[in-house]
Amino acid sequence: MQPNESSSTESVVRVVEPLETTTLFPSAHGTDQTFQENASLSGLLNENGSTTLSPNGHTPYSIYYNFILLSTLFSANHGAVVSCLSLATARLGTLGSYQSSVLYMSYTFSALFGATFIVKSIGARDSIRVGMWIYCVYVACFLIATLFKDYQEVSALIGAFVGGIGGGFLWTAQGSYFARASQEYAFAQSLDMDNATSILGGLFAGIYLGGEVVMRLCSTILIQWGWSWSWVFGWYTLVAMGSAFLMGFAVDYPMGEEEERKAKSQTNFYKSTVTFRLLLKDPKMKYMIPLSGAFALSSVFFATFVNAEVVRVSLKDSDSVFVGFMTSITALVGGIMSVVFGFSSKSIGNSTILIIGCTAFFSVSCLFVVYPDLNGWKLPTLVLVYCLQGVGRATFEGTLKAEFAEKFDDKEAAFGNIIFQNGLITTLGFIIAANNGCKEVTTYCIKYYDEHLHNVLVLEVLIMTFAVLAIAGYKRAKYLYEKERDEHELQSRLLGEDHLL
To answer: N or C: which end of the chain has fewer CB within 10 A?
Structure first.
């Protein structure tokens, strides 16, 4: 198009540019009515009542399909990571538990001190790329540990430490990117933020977990084809590196003017510790911890006990062939339920969905408490617990993150807290799993294949406790959020403002 030509598209872009994001995007204190009124007054609505471009000039379709691209590449990279993680204890024994605890410890402190600085400095998309490349080191360490047995311990622990740093960047950046993409999509489609985050949250979780299904199945299929474990881990390394490279083709969404001004005014120390500050200063945040904790401990329980021992004993699987297949059931159910929850949240509410997830986590542990004999477990009952884990995971990957995006204004700090909470509790969980020994084989004292004795009842009770606390904590956090919103709306009316910040 020549400089002297004009079009309706250019007209829309010129109108959008001077508008402030805080006015048009309902945050924790905004409303759909305010959004519609401001959009109408600005001339951004078409004849059908929907906007045609986002503030950065993107159409609803381009935002949607770009988000699919990002989710697919993210899924491939992280699918390679979690496939290796689920095999850690099964292939490396007790070393695998220690390796996983190092991974999550590094992941936790990366999120707490530094990840938000990286995201605020180089942007969400590029931070995702950095995190994905660093994650490749963790995946490659399994290849090295398999090929060079003399360096197995060193490579496993160093790879976990480096990979955890990448995980802190990756998930903080993903949360920030998700929040900005939701804002763009909400504006372009004339939706409120709650609906936009639910739709994109369900879409991301569905693709993310669907890709994970494929990646987890790879180990089972490739081993059945006669591949060695070194070739399997080599394949995972190749996928992780390829997806990290292709992430550069995803569209980046820059910060708004107000957000960029605030970021420039903040010191590097402030940016690095903003996650910790939000945890201490926002009273809602501490009540969200049990939600992350229930998922974290349940994941540890599956990685160290169900995948490593229950599958081995009940299915007579000494070579871990069926671990990939069984864990893919969790990812498949999680992907399907993420989409279902994403589109049903408007009718049944996120509260109901989160309660369903907590009930699923509780049920998994409860079943093993009631039926502790591993020889009594068969394929149908194992499929049931992997399905329940998938339902619970769907609420964590989709609904819970949508709740964090809605209820906290600082997106990097909010998603940094998800990582911190999940990472810290997961680290403690792996430490408990590795060191919670017992003296003799009993109902709940299980001898693992590496001859170590472990008391599995401790983790089972902790998961059930966190699941109950999660429901109560979320109810309290929701009450505080609604109270803050009502107080802000009242203050706005008293001040005579014509819109809510």
So the answer is: N
Which carries the bigger pLDDT value, residue 221 or residue 320?
221
How large is the greatest C-alpha to C-alpha distance in the chain, in angstroms? 85
Type of residue found at 309: E
What is the rounded CA–CA span in Å between residue 459 and residue 304? 10
Q: Alpha-carbon distance 300 to 288, whole Å?
A: 19
Q: How many residues does the chain have?
A: 501
SS3 content of the chain, % helix, strand, coil (to 5): 80, 0, 20
DSSP for 268-301 reads HHHHHHHHHHHHHH-TTHHHHHHHHHHHHHHHHH
Residue 123's SS3 state is coil
Q: Is the pLDDT of residue 28 over 50?
A: no
The pair phi, psi for residue 51, each rounded to 5°, is -75, 155
Token pair of 176 as six digits: 């920030």
Where does residue 134 rank: exposed (0-12), middle (13-18), buried (19+ CB within 10 A)? buried
> 301 vs 118, which has greater pLDDT?
301
Cα 124 to Cα 24, 117, 165: the distances in Å are 21, 11, 16
The DSSP H or E segment spanning 325 is helix 323-348
| Alpha carbons 193 and 77: distance in angstroms, whole number | 28
Radius of gyration of the chain from its Cα atoms, rounded to whole angstroms: 23
Cβ atoms < 10 Å from Cβ of 358: 26
CA distance 176 to 252: 11
Q: Is 496 left (phi over 0), alpha (psi -120 to 50) or beta?
A: left
Residue range 87-117, pLDDT digits in tens: 876 677 777 778 888 888 888 777 777 677 7
With a pLDDT cut of 90, the percent of the chain lying above it is 20
Nearest to 153 by CA among 164, 141, 163: 141
Contact 184, 56 (CB under 8 A): yes
Among 354, 330, 313, which residue's Cα sits nearest to residue 85?
330
CB-facing half-sphere around the CA of 97: CA atoms within 13 A: 22
Type of residue at 407: K
Residue 437, classified by CB atoms within 10 Å of its CB into exposed (0-12), middle (13-18) or buried (19+), is: exposed
Quote the pLDDT of residue 265. Answer: 56
Residue 320 Rama label (left phi>0; alpha psi -120 to 50; beta)? left
Q: Answer for the pair 240, 80: CB distance below 8 angstroms, yes or no.
A: yes
Confidence of residue 235 (pLDDT cuts 50, 70, 90): very high
User: Phi/psi of residue 447, each to 5°?
Assistant: -90, 120
Q: pTM, whole model, 2 decimals?
A: 0.66
pLDDT at 400 exceeding the cut of 80: yes
